[in-house]
Amino acid sequence: MTLSTVWKGAKIAFLIIGTTIGAGYASGRELWEFFGSYGPQSQKAVLVSMILFSLSCYVIMMVSHRLKAPHYRLVLEEIIGLRLAKAYDVLIFFYLLSTTVVMFAGSGATLVYWELSYWVGVVLIGIFVLFVFLRDVEGVMSLNSLLIPVLIAMLLLACGLFLGQNSMADIEMEEGQGNVLSSGIAFTALNILPLIAVLSAIGSKVNKEEIAVSCVGSGICLALISLLYNQSLLFVSQEVMLYDVPLFAILQNFPPEWMVGVSVVLWLAIYTTAVSNIFGLVSRFKDQVYMPQWAVAGGFILLVMPLTTFGFTKLIQFLYPLYGVLNLFILAMILLYPLKQLALYYDKQ
């Protein structure tokens, strides 16, 4: 395996992480709702979820690589069949579009926290997203290779410093009700749909070794961050419900400068997710719309901006649970796909 293979695989891993670590994850809200609220037992569920996550990414990219798929529609047809692919094609379109609205609204909400105009935040992220698409696909991956290490380092540093000041004996929390393992599977399902759109357009441009590096690398990195972040949230379980952003509960006794750093991290998380979502939309329609990639991206950005008037919190509360349930089926089909192919192989023998 060459150094260039490892580097390209790492760039794709950053793209996977950038697509996953959106405003919900970086703020700690997703991790708390899906894992931390169930108590200390949730750490095992985090590991199971991340293993399923890596396997799903590997299957998606291998299918895309074999089919030389230009976008996610062909990959969907291969995994779930033609009829269901049509339905999920529409679902993915609305998922990417609506969650991009959430990210743009989140950018506006972040600037409101600093007493700036909501619309300044919305327009600002729109301009920065469009700028990336002036450099085509390489621009998207270059962006993630620059910003994601910063985002990861910030989260790891914050959680590492916090955990260094506390011991396991300080956790005072009852075990949550419900099945944490099923909640962990739902977490994977929620995050897999945008990755189908993004990775389906990448698989045809990489080889098998690069796919393996990206899936293993992103899985290990996300598992490490999630375990440390979730462990930190367990320490502040009594205060989490007092904060819209659980990360602020972890940093409540940190110096004020950390709040500035956290705001930057949250905005970067919002930004990278918005870029990945627009990339998925552009990849889907580039064969039907004979326009430069940046122009198609600009069209989607203009479509998204007025929809942000619905508000950040309301959009998350309504859309995320809905998509989590709808995605369970496609997650199951992705994980069962290798077994299906194996059965077909033996039938031909």
TrEMBL record:
The chain crosses the membrane at residues 44-63, 84-104, 116-134, 146-164, 184-204, 211-229, 258-282, 294-312, 318-339. InterPro entries: YkvI-like. Keywords: Membrane, Transmembrane, Transmembrane helix. The keyword Membrane applies. It comes from Caldalkalibacillus uzonensis. The keyword RNA-binding does not apply. This is Membrane protein YkvI.
